[in-house]
Design brief:
By secondary structure, this protein is an alpha/beta fold. The protein contains 11 helices and 11 strands. The strands form 3 sheets. Strands 3-2-1-4-5-6-10 form a 7-stranded parallel beta sheet, sandwiched between helices. α1 crosses α7. The relative contact order is 0.14. It binds NADP nicotinamide-adenine-dinucleotide phosphate. The site of NADP nicotinamide-adenine-dinucleotide phosphate has 28 residues, from α3 and β7.
């Protein structure tokens, strides 16, 4: 008998490539997914995947989804929602998932945490390994929630037989994961006048929009490489515990600008930090402005543990992943 895998949030940027990967993995017999939107896996030609609509805030839906499952994968998350919504879905919803997985007696629980769980601290070792405790950044809701949830997961499963795998990807990108570009281009929606001007400038022939680049390096990981790492943990490769995930190499916002046909202007790091600090003060009006902190502090991860223990060899480096994301964004009309 192969594995039955239950997935929360299978319709997102990580979930869809994972469903595609699990169709291929022989050890997996069936997959059940649950999120709120309508979704028809049969349209993709997938044979193993069943889908139902439900909310991680509803414990009965989780109990039904996990009944008889061998492995739970928790991907459901509100990354860019409002303050109240992210707290409800992420903190209450994830605790519901952890408790329901324990109650259902699954063998393994795989949770997608993030590089953000470490927090963005000037004194963090570079590159950072899984031995460094995830302390989060207080002024950045996503980072604080990711750190809080890793501790909550350990508490929830304490004394149980459920093996917990915590994956910490950097920014996930690729042709079907364009969130980074969507945020760069679409931040105009947050009321920041600069991106509006940049977009307007982009419509004038010969005048490409300009993105400020402080030179901070960050990592990217391709969605298909994340799917392979998740599949390895679903199959029980390596010891339970935390694993950093990042492709080889790094990029800057200047590279992102070039990939999407924008210009970039180099701004000194202290100036960028000043801007980040200002944006964080304005975060009272929109929590999304807290994301500025992620781009004015360098947090680069060491991925040796995933490579050694999971046998994970990412196929795409940061530059290739960026190019593929830019192509995907163009095809999706994000750059029109
Ligand atoms: N993308 C990245 O760069 C990245 C990097 C590191 C870590 N991660 C982590 O990886 C996980 C998955 O990320 P992603 O990029 O796939 O996110 P995503 O594209 O935003 O997808 C989120 C998924 O969660 C579902 N969901 C949201 N609220 C839900 C609720 N209340 N009940 C049930 N399902 C709900 C969504 O579907 P509905 O909205 O239809 O419910 C969707 O399927 C998250 O924990 C994220 O923090 C992502």
């Amino acid at each position: 008998m192969g594995l039955t895998v239950a997935i929360t949030g299978p319709t997102g940027e990580i979930g869809l490539p994972l469903l595609r990967e699990l169709e291929r993995v022989e050890a997996v017999e069936s997959v059940r997914g649950m999120a709120r939107r309508p979704f028809r896996p049969e349209l993709a030609g997938w044979q193993k995947v069943a889908y139902r609509r439900g909310d991680v805030l509803d414990r009965d839906s989780l109990a039904a989804l996990f009944e008889g499952a061998d492995v739970v994968v928790h991907l459901a998350f509100s990354i860019f929602g409002g303050r109240g919504q992210t707290r409800r879905v992420n903190l209450i919803g994830s605790r519901n998932v952890f408790a329901a997985a324990r109650k259902a007696g699954v063998k393994r629980l795989v949770y997608a945490s993030s590089v953000a769980a470490y927090g963005f601290h000037a004194d963090a070792p570079q590159p950072i390994t899984e031995g460094v405790p995830p302390r989060g950044s207080e002024g950045f809701y996503y980072s604080a929630q990711k750190a809080e949830l890793e501790a909550a997961l350990a508490d929830s499963l304490d004394g149980s037989d459920v093996a917990a795998y915590v994956l910490r990807p950097c920014v996930v990108a690729g042709p079907q994961a364009t969130m980074l570009i969507d945020r760069v281009v679409g931040s105009a929606r947050l009321g920041d006048p600069l991106p509006k001007l940049r977009r307007w400038a982009g419509r004038v022939p010969g005048l490409a929009p300009v993105l400020p680049d402080s030179g901070v390096h960050f990592q990217l990981v391709h969605h298909d490489d994340v799917a392979v790492a998740l599949a390895a943990t679903i199959e029980g490769a390596g010891d339970p515990g935390a694993y950093n995930l990042a492709g080889t190499g790094t990029i800057t916002l200047g590279d992102v600008a070039r990939a999407i046909g924008w210009h970039s202007v180099r701004v000194p790091r202290p100036l960028a930090s000043l801007g980040g600090g200002f944006a964080r003060r304005l975060a009272f009006f929109s929590p999304q402005l807290e994301w500025a902190i992620a781009y004015d502090h360098e947090v680069l991860m060491d991925t040796a543990k995933a490579r050694q223990e999971l046998g994970w060899v990412p196929r795409f480096d940061a530059q290739e992943t960026l190019i593929q994301m830019a192509v995907g964004a163009r095809e999706a009309g994000l750059l029109d």
